[in-house]
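Subgroup meeting minutes
Present: P.N., E.W., G.H.
Scribe: E.W.

1. P.N. recapped why we're keeping a running log of single-chain structure predictions: easier to compare across weeks, and new members can see raw inputs and outputs side by side.
2. G.H. added today's entry (172 aa).
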Amino acid sequence: MALEQYCPVIQIVGYQNSGKTTLVEKIIKRFTSENYHVATIKHHGHGGSLKKSEPLKDSERHLEAGARITTVEGSGELLMHVKKDQWTLDRLIDLHRFFDPDLIVVEGYKQENYPKVVLLRGEEDLPLVERMSNILCIISWNDITVSESQPIFQISEQGSYLEYIFQKMRVN
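Output recorded in log:
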């Protein structure tokens, strides 16, 4: 894929411990099973140094699932390891496109406007949906009622939501 070609970006968002990293792993495996090259960007939004932190374990999980390149960003630190005052998601996406992925999966960056899969643990997480834009679908751990028109999947419907995401995000 040349730099000027299209590369879709999908965001996986949800509160802490909602299953974001596990879902990213599943998406990577689904796309790589069809010979797609996947890149990931993990946002470490909890502050502090990235050294010996949980986001590094998450990025290792991304690599083990089959991602070709994975990056963790937080507080201006970028592991690839580059130091800058601030990294915007758009700049990180531009950087990843250099490596010719077929899909970029972003874990976090809730306020950005790329297509999103929103993970909800229960009713207490519903305010997150109201603050999101560009929702592709919602995956819930419990039966909930959402006023949004996007598809809602139960976490147990893995085959259905993975196929839905694949159909919506694949490059034709």
